[in-house]
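Human:
Take a look at this sequence-structure pair and walk me through the tokens.
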Amino acid sequence: METRRTVRGTSARNFKSGLSLWLILWLVVVKPGGVAPCPKLCVCYPMPMTVSCQSQNLTIVPAGVPYDSQRVFLQNNRITELRADSFGFETQVLWLYGNNITWIEAGAFSNLRVLEELDLGDNPSLRHLEGGAFRGLEKLQSLHMHRCKLATLPHDLFHKLYSLQFLYLQENQLHFLHDDLFSDLVNLTHLFLHGNRIRTLSENVFRGLVNLDRLLLHDNRIRQVNRRAFRDLGRLTILYLFNNSLAELPGQAMKDVQGIQFLRLNDNPWSCGCEALSLWEWFRKARISSSEVMCTSPSQRRNQDLRFLRELDFALCPLPDPGSLAGTTTTTFSTKTRWWFSKHKPASSSKSLYQKSTESVKAFPFSAVKPQYLPKASTESFPSKYELSEDEAALPKVDPEEYWTNYGNEDSSIRCFELECPPGYDDLAFPSSSSLPITPSFIQLFSLTVVTFSLHFLFG
């Protein structure tokens, strides 16, 4: 009896041990089998869950990627299209660079709600994107689209990408950027646009980028920068504009980037006439690390650095036109000043340069007028250490009150339009209100003088 009890107890313990062993095997083998296996031609790694399918000549996104994969690497394949049903998993990092992607369907990434990094770079056949291509990626922090031969970007491409911090668009074929293209990217800190074909920067092109830290625009074809183009970039510290086609840059545009620390403007055809005055004044006050800004025109300032020009070099520049949106230094000359120019410019070009209509004249350089003949507001405005040359002393003296009185109506009192104006006409055409007494005898004398000159012109 004792022996039977011993055998029976031993059998019960063996049964329990065997049952426990099978339970352990089931937990180890069968339970993990509930998770989708690694896709064919891919390698999977745990902690964090990573699916690597790179360089396998895949033409589509493979099926069977585990839903909880945190990183999916599909780079260097031959994938051609990304459709709305291409991604049935939830991941944080997705690499698709080095493929042959030609089309991305709107909403293709909408299932990737927690995606933080998307790399689509080096897809040379990706020339166009639909507006909703990145819809739903509200947690995306880094987006790579470099070297894709993109020619245009839809105006709503980055709509609601509020978390984006890094945007790589360099070395594409972008010719222009829509206004408000980046307006939703309030947290963007790095914007790379170098190596494109951008020609102008409009007033609203960077609106909304209030946290941008660095902006790379070098190696483009930029010719014009609106004076308000950088108005939202108060936190910008690095700006690269070298190797473009810039002849001028509004000083007002640079005043808006108050936190700038590193600025590169080299390898541009800078014009250092009066149009450079506002930028030169900004450089005098700025405390930044800057590249050289070498002048290419006018000829007497070629190969000089704009930053180190003297105040005398801009002493004859007119007042800037407050209505110039591009920031170009322009002016509308008063009647007296314009008449003086008509007398002193070469006869061969007098008729072509002088027009009877109200006009806004480019301040500098003049095609037919030498720099020393540029007008100045007043000789008293020069610092005492500068001595006036004979040409400078001969310039007309126009006080600010007269300048603004005639603004917009410059031809109202011009009676002599050619170089044949008689000697002393300057004093007759522009009498001083303080020196001419208003009496009947004077009026009669003045009228008689006008009639005499009129008869002289009519009958020779």
